[in-house]
Amino acid sequence: MAKSHKSKAKRDIMLRDQLSEAGRKLLAAQLDRMKRHEAGSRTGEDIESVHQMRVAIRRMRSLFMLIGAAYKPKTVDSYSRDLRRIARALGRIRDLDVLILDLEAFRQSLPEGDQATLDRVIERLDSRRGEHRERLNALFDSKFYARFLRRFARFCKKPGRGARPVPNLEAPHQLRHVLPILLHERLARVRAYDTVLPAADDAILHALRVEFKQLRYALEFFQPLLGGTTNSFLREAKEMQEILGRINDIAVFSDYMSGLKKLSPEQAGGVQGYLVDRDQALTALRLRFDKHWASFNSRARMRQFSDALLVLR
Question: Looking at the DSSP assignment, which residues form a beta bridge with residue 174?
Answer without folding.
Answer: 18
